[in-house]
Design goal:
123 residues, mainly beta, 58% strand
């Protein structure tokens, strides 16, 4: 069974920084893509950052230039470094792994979500 566990959320003042982590457990063979999403109260979930298996990244317009997504392939982990945080960045942040093939599920693939971590930016 594949599980994603997130950490690193919290309360920070505007202009501050936070680093989110997401680590996958389970006997994973491959991952097609990874991403970070967020959902603020009353709003739809939106893409924050995404990374392909080759390492190419793209970012949502609201976070470009402020957030950086990285990974540690050996640890099956992804990170989101958030700087110059704004009150409008307040949301629950979720990590997502797409096209995951594990030793149990192969050849089938699945998509998995983390449990979410709250980020609150005060003005």
């Amino acid at each position: 069974q594949v599980q994603l566990v997130e950490s690193g959320g919290g309360l920070v003042q505007a202009g501050g920084s936070l680093r989110l982590s997401c680590a996958a457990s389970g006997r994973i063979i491959s991952i097609n893509a990874m991403g970070w999403y967020r959902q603020a109260p009353g709003k739809e979930r939106e893409l924050v950052a995404a990374m392909t298996s080759g390492g190419s990244t793209n970012y949502g317009d609201p976070v470009k230039g402020r957030f950086t997504m990285s990974r540690d392939s050996a640890k099956r982990a992804v990170y989101l470094q958030m700087t110059s945080l704004l009150p409008e960045d307040t949301a629950v942040y979720y990590c997502n792994f797409k096209g995951v093939r594990s030793q149990i599920s192969a050849p089938s693939m699945g998509d998995y979500w983390g449990q979410g971590t709250q980020v609150t930016v005060s003005s």
